[in-house]
Structures
1.
Amino acid sequence: MSDFVSLERRGSVAVVTVNNPPVNALGAGVRQGLVSCLEQANADTEIDIIVLLGSGRTFPAGADITEFGKPMADPDLHEVILAYENSDKPVLAAIHGTALGGGLELALGCDYRCGSAAARVGLPEVKLGILPGAGGTQRLPRLIGVEAALKIIVSGDFVAAGKALDLGILDHIVDGDLVDGAVAHARSLIDDGKPRRRIRDMNAEAPPELFDTFEKSIARRARGYLAPFKCIEAIRGAVELAFEEGMANERKLFIECMKSPQSAGQRHMFFAERQSAKVPDVPKDTPLRTIAGAGVIGAGTMGGGIAMNFANAGIPVTIIDIDQQGLDKGLGIIEGNYAATVKKGRISQAEMDQRMGLISGALDYAALAQVDIVVEAAFEGMSLKKEIFGKLDAVCKPGAILATNTSTLDVNEIAAATGRPQDVIGTHFFSPANVMKLLEIVRAGKTSAEVIATTMKLARKINKVGVLVGVCDGFVGNRMLHGYFNEAQRLLEEGALPHQVDKVLYDWGFAMGPLAVMDLAGIDVGWRIRKEKAASRDPDQPYSSTVADRLAEMGRFGQKTRRGWYIYQEGSRVPQPDPEVEDMLKQVSKEKGITRRDITDQEIFKRCMYQLVNIGADILDEGIAMRSGDIDVIYVYGYGFPVFRGGPMFYAERVGLKQVYDDIAKFHEIHGVTWRPSALLKRLAEEGKGFNDL
Ligand code: CAA
């Protein structure tokens, strides 16, 4: 017995139960308890089979990630699994919740595995930048075949119990109470005289070309990643090497991955994402409001995408638009999106019908009288937003959450247009809103804790990663993006070309380079906003136009006009360099008196990346973001920042804030005001500290 693992006798069946909430991670205490309970069960002459399970919500969901990078206390997980594999008496793993990583590997060291119908299994290590390091790459292919194991291990995706049964990961599904069912099943294994079954004694076979073919099939998706390819290499070892050698090979590859900066970045993201759900001044027990019905203002692309999120989560939603035509068009686009998903086989026709059934349209705000939340997704414009919020204030029931999807405007000012600013919050979705995982949740000065807690919970329900931020122009993501885009343009004025800038960032791991992103988003969008702002600007601070404005003036609005920073062939999204743009850039340089020069890839990289970091540091300093990890989560989930780099702030910490600051200070000397170093960055650099020390 230990604090973490208990042993109970049920007739001749020993039940070993792991008890280490919340997810029964296999920390040192659990590992020790597992071995000692096994020894006791084996020593007990009355026992003829052992059942291994987890208490609470799950079978062990993996190794304890917080132990990574530190010396491992004995016994290590290998030794534990070997002890179960070599147990004198047969062992049945009984799985509920999620048997993941080291948890599933432990179960694979057992003779048999049963599970509840709602159980899920998986080897998600690849998502932490590592590979299953406790025999998973050797045992799973032996048990279920190489191709199926490749798919599971390289994707890291969870497998539901029914499929796990089909594949042979589970041998039996338990109905009703897991412990009773598992004990009865264990008894039947003995009564039926089922033989011992060690997976290590099985063979893994595959045609040699399978691995190359598989590698090619993931090449695009896994671009820049290390771990997926190391997983494949380890699984190849299961086919080509004897078990012990395959295990040694897995160990070697595991350590290589574990020591990689990629794994450090991905592990940082794992914890940063979970941390971002916590708001220090909004305690866990803050009362939550029920969200059983929603409204969306605006049937445009954004509004439609937002409405789909509600319908996907089973929440009925009413979309309001100003005219029937707009409404019909918006509903038609939603239907088309769902139909495309059905065609791809991702949802069934019945699911589509059910979701469409939850979406209705109306022209009159009165249709929103009973909803629990309204998300306004109308055009950006303060007077329009104020008018809408005034109307919502008049029709919505008390306690309804009034949210705005604005990406730039002051949520405090919008809230002030109502008599209930405590119920007003920003919910900044990213386009396409039904796909992108990020939700920037903007807390205004008077937003209540209840409204924050409910909106954060809602984010999870609609399958988003919600990050709470404060009010400023562009909030966190777009404010940083602004500096990054502008720097990319300054590089163009100084001598770089669009494809050179984009290639540097793309090769580093970004989903797209900054100029390709601008083409996708539409060059005209920023141009119009800048013009509007320029009109209301202080005349003493004249507006200095950007090179993107010049592009817009040429009618080059990006992909939508098939011309932007690049030229696009009819029906293609592949950017091609365009000499007309190069000519325009040369002309702009000339007009500004800039002598164009060769700019190195390293300079391009640093100038784009450090803009993000410098503005990110200002944002932290101002308290607009609560933690540097929140900024990283925003960039990875909303802006195509490579997860294996851990986010811009994490990346800067790895480089060293002193080094980053010195470079920024140098850029400041050369390029002036746009490189004013963040005071926080300066202070941390001088004190030898990191963002995490805050
Ligand atoms: N180690 C340590 N802590 C863990 C953990 C782990 N393996 N898995 C989850 N936690 C912690 C989380 O950090 C979180 O802590 P806080 O409440 O303090 O934030 C808490 O458990 C609950 O986690 P979630 O908020 O994620 O809860 P959930 O119900 O949404 O999801 C889960 C549960 C599906 C298990 C999810 O936590 C998860 O995917 N965990 C990671 C699983 C994993 O990657 N396992 C492999 C580990 S690596 C390994 O095993 C290596 C090897 O081969 C030896």
2.
Amino acid sequence: MKHYYKLDEWNIIEEGFDADKNEISESIFSLGNGYMGQRANFEEEYSGASLQGNYIAGVYYPDKTRVGWWKNGYPEYFAKVLNSTNWIGINIKINDISLDLAKCTVNEFKRVLNMEEGYLQRSFKAALSNGNEIEVKSKRFISMTRGEIGAIKYSLKPLNFKGKLEITPYLDGDVMNSDSNYDEKFWDEISKEVNPYEAYMMLKTKKLDFHICTYMTYELTKNGEIIKPLVALEQSEKYVSNTVLVDCIENDEITIYKYVANTSSRYYETAELRQRTKELSNKAKNDGFDILLKEQAHSWKEKWKESDIVIEGDISAQQGIRFNIFQLNQTYTGEDHRLNIGPKGFTGEKYGGSTYWDTEAYCIPFYLSTSEEKVSRNLLLYRYKQLDKAIENAEKLGFTNGAALYPMVTMNGEECHNEWEITFEEIHRNGAIAYATYNYVNYTGDKSCLGEFSFEVLAAISRFWAQRATFSKSKNKYVILGVTGPNEYENNINNNWYTNKIAAWTLGYTLEVINYLSENEPERLSELKEKLNFKDDEIVIWKSIIENMYYPCDEELGIFLQQDGYMDKEQILVKELDKKHLPLNQNWSWDRILRSCFIKQADVLQGIYLFEQEYDTDTIRRNFEFYEPRTVHESSLSPCIHTILAGKIGNHDKAYEMYLRASRLDLDNYNNDTNDGCHSTSMAGTWMAIVHGFGGLRVMNNKLILNPFIPKHWCSCSFKIMFRGALLNIKFTASTLQIQNENNIAVNLSVYEKDYSLNGNDLLEINIL
Ligand code: BGC
């Protein structure tokens, strides 16, 4: 699907209607504001293939688990983000015939996602079966300033007829999740009311009692003048609508402005939901579409000021990275520590909208550099608030003494995944959660979280690792048995290098934090030790594990081994495979995949990326050159890590090749699955590929380090990052590097291994040799 969408720096543009690609476009043109989001379904009826999706962040449903072969310890339910009330609906009848793009001739169809100002626009001409031709233009957005508000402007122009237009704005809560395990509907109606020019509906989830209230108001104009035609009211179960009839002649322009507020019991008392929702939607209507749109443009301008990346000389790459940044900013805004980032954001149901290790391993670096500290801190708090559940989860699996195993997939802290090899064995996720604290403290310099809450998380995770490692007499080392590493194409393996590494690292980091607290916050440390019943004997064991952890390696090749026995496998390279076998997960039996040496995603290399400062460049090169040719990158999270390491070892062509796989993954539907939703968390990986990969950004010892190189195909690249109060605009070409400090806070830098201090508002220019 390469370049199905037109190339443009700030817009995603679809020209011409291709019903076969509609579900892909519904994902691509998704809208969101961190509080709610939706797929780009049409406002008017559409009987063709479509995945309906409206989601409210944090409103989920514990759908009863469906599994072929039950195993003790499996979770009873899979929490999934709920498809909720369709609030965009505006049905149209033209002289009694429904406007339905699946049933008419569509001309001049154009859909545009304006990423600079944050709205979705659509226009087309449709010829109906009765010969009537109509032009439609719509614009809608989900407000970044007023979290609960969405607004739509929908205009109709008869092109060759006069007669009646029937316009039906509605709210439809009679919706389902397409992935409902037992084909159940998850909503019950609580109340509704429909009046002329307004209607509301309150629904409640069948379990957990999440209430959501949706209120619509609207206004009509004819050729720019407000009109108030008579209204027919309609309601049925979980459905409310108004219908108006408007007489029109050729070239009249009839516009409906629909303003909708969506509130939930997560933020308001149930008793006040209705009134509050009404006020919000009325206020939006009184302020009007143009004001709301202006606010929207302003909010996005502010977002771009802090997070934009500009690539000159490669419009395809420019569009790709802006699309990724746009989607990330639509998905999570960091105001509410109870929210997180699902792998598909608000763009589809897959992965249940739940939290994965993706957040800590991939998204936190993006939010750390492009938003205020609070945003990433809230992601740390999210896990802290779920610590009790993580301890319970570990207890269920037989661990004791406050050991915590965070879930692989979760909404509220409880594990939802139920494939044993992942639920029970993909335990490296615990390490990523610990690493996120290090990452936050290292980047921001803010250590207050350690005593406030992070030590508790670190201690609980460390207790888990201490119990999960076993001492092997034959090896005279600690080993970790029966795990799945990041490479999910291997299960139940022993001594996954990455897992062993991150386990021992967590123990070491927790000890560092204990030292820090004992020096700086001794009283708080004693309080915490008492609360956790923490004995210094534990430290003795941790130290012994750190010193004696077993790390598989191949001395002859000079590489770390992904797991015990990896070299016993038949060693074939991906390039030696006939292309028809790829992707393996669609062409090979699971058994064949497990027996092969092929690696789904960065695994040893993931560890080398995290702990890069521990390895010299030759070690990194040897491992990269061994693992990259064996990696099939069938997780979208993989190529970005390979980009960064290829950059590190100076293999710039490889870095660029890997970057291309990540950057337009969804826009070009590279994995043939964008219809399910966009790969939102891997979008943060794409950002990392540019900023950490091409920009060489790292933070060490309170210093920002940069080692930029520009891919051959680009004229220049610039990115913005926030670092300890400074806002830096870093621009590089093949021969020059400019770093403009756009704030008045000084910052210490190391660029190409030379130290600089950059004062507020100063510009540093360096010639690249
Ligand atoms: C990857 C995991 C990831 C999940 C959600 C899987 O395909 O292997 O590492 O957490 O997708 O993005």
3.
Amino acid sequence: MTDIFEDLPDRVSIYEVGPRDGLQNESAAVGTVLKLRLIEALTRAGLKRIEITSFVSPRWIPQLADADDVGRTVRAEGGVVYSALCPNARGLERALVAGVHEIAVFLSASETHNRRNINKSIADSLDVFRGFIPSALENGMRVRGYVSTAWGCPYEGDVDPARALELAQVLLGMGCYQISLGDTIGVGTPLQTRRLLERFLGELPKDKLAMHMHDTRGQALANVLVGLEMGIRTFDAAIGGLGGCPYAPGASGNLATEDLVYMLDGMGIDTGVDLQKLWEAGRLAEALVNRPLPGRVHRAGLRSLKS
Ligand code: HMG
Ligand code: MG
């Protein structure tokens, strides 16, 4: 019998998406100052990669209409990388003015979700990316890529893994340093994850891939464990389990960062994150959005039988 805990890493990188994926989906208006306070709390907890906002159309995502102010105010220190979603040249221009050092481009592996989310075909989206990624790289930015709906599409159902892989390869060819594979609506299960990753890892190096799991059906940590065992070393997560895409019906929270850190801590895998401080950041997030957040550790508290 193979032991799934045989080849675990000493360290894993967490890419926090709460201020972006989380707040983009909230009905409560969260003021800029409060967003900045949340980003500060996440930074204090030890997170080194935080997606802070989106330079998308404020008409499409009004919750992040203050991206310019957020981007301008947050300053990278102590090795922390703050990144922002960017769909087009206009977004890049705004990111450059704000002084953001990393952007993330995004498209979907399914045509219908791509059109609903960014109002273009996949082919046209790639053309748009081709038009501005070189300029981002020339300006010294790092560019990350998302391939959404890799596990399934809210409109089309099953998605061909070959298509997701092809798009990941194209984005890497354009200069993305890493591709985050998105289970946008949280439909994936562990065996599917194994098969999907086998496909990807047959063609791409492990360090070029990350997993971005929404926890809609409670499968996110199980899928992460499969990814971990197969060599994935970067996982996206959102504080408190915030998250969801307004253009993907049924998409709810991301894997909660506290749940991910709790599991990794318990397995002796270093994340650089202080779980107590992270938990406090989750309390702040909950107060900001004014609704109970779904993260399990967020709700149950830290294990503290000793104290
Ligand atoms: P469009 O309407 O087709 O764009 O939207 P357009 O180029 O025709 O421009 C229309 C207007 O928008 C123009 O203004 C542009 O200037 C403006 P007007 O002349 O009418 O006044 N505009 C912009 N303004 C500010 N910043 C910009 C920008 N671009 C155009 N960057 C567009 C196309 C891509 C802009 C739009 O569809 C959009 O913003 N979509 C974003 C949707 C989004 O953010 N979805 C959620 C994020 S994706 C996600 O959550 C999944 C992920 O988490 C991974 C996973 O879970 O799988 C990443
Ligand atoms: Mg997402």
4.
Amino acid sequence: MSEKISSIAQTLPHLGVNDPARVGALFAEVRAAFDRDASSAGDEASWKILRDAWLGRKSGVLTLVTDNWLKPASPELKRAVGAALNELRAHVEAQIEERRKALQASTEQTAAARERLDLSLPGVERPIGSRHLVRQVQEEIERIFLSIGFSVVEGPEIETPYYNFEALNIPEYHPVRDDMDTFYLDVPPGAKPLLLRTHTSPMQIRTMEKQKPPVRIIVPGKVYRRDNPDATHSFMFHQVEGLAVDTDITFCEFKGTMEYFIREFFGPSVKTRFRPSYFPFTEPSAELDASCIFCGGRGSGCAKCKGSGWIELFGAGMVDPSVYGFVNYDAKKLSGFAFGLGPDRMAMLKYGVEDIQTFFQNDVRFLRQFP
Ligand code: PHE
């Protein structure tokens, strides 16, 4: 570069320039040299060299032009040199800046091109699990009840004795509490006792406290009892509570809804049976049975139903009027039914699972059988 414009190392008188008319041509040469230089600055490193060569404070071309041409220029030439130098400086600065922008844009473009996703490449396979069988059954139960106007609510697993027992018409001395012995939490001395709920029925009370009738809800969730683990018992298992309360609900609706559910769940050929039972919060109470899905209800020789032809499914009943008293519902105007399904048990029946423990052991060989 500096070879081509060696003129800038000399002063104007040395170059024989005495006439303002010749200044223009002189600067045009310098400008042409710059343009050549600039056009070959194709990356950041050569751009920096270009910038320093032309704008460098100590020995850049423009500094030399200033020192060697402008400063010593005779008064006749000074004006013309000054003007030409300003024009050259503006050109050089503008070009260098423009070049910088162009280079930056093209590096961004190459970076973007490098990072572009190739959607035709095979992806990284991340094996995802499937829904647990109990969850699948729970969702199936929800689907059936949602389709007939129930909604799904959930409630706390840690409860007070009031919601778990008292408000469900189970006073402290009631013998039924023995069946539902549970885990009490360690609370500070003097604090109110807390327990792990033994059933989802507390949500009957919590829902009616919050909501005016009519009520049609199901409540899926975990419950706890102090049971020793075996093939049909677990200290933690699942329930789906159901509650329907309105001004015109009779035993017929109760029976029809339960039969509809059982047939939807197990298939149209299954028969249902109501047996009298007892729960403090329902009156009358019933135990629901389905005709044995393993032997088709024949019974004889069937180990699953122990020859009876029937399988016990779940407890239910018409809401005991005394329960309405706990939630300020008018027992004279309202009626309803409640039920408590066990999805674990229903899954065992529907899918032939022999041991409830397999649900909670998380052995993938078991879980994978129910994708
Ligand atoms: N909560 C009862 C139980 O766990 C089941 C049930 C629910 C019975 C609703 C009647 C009505 O045994």
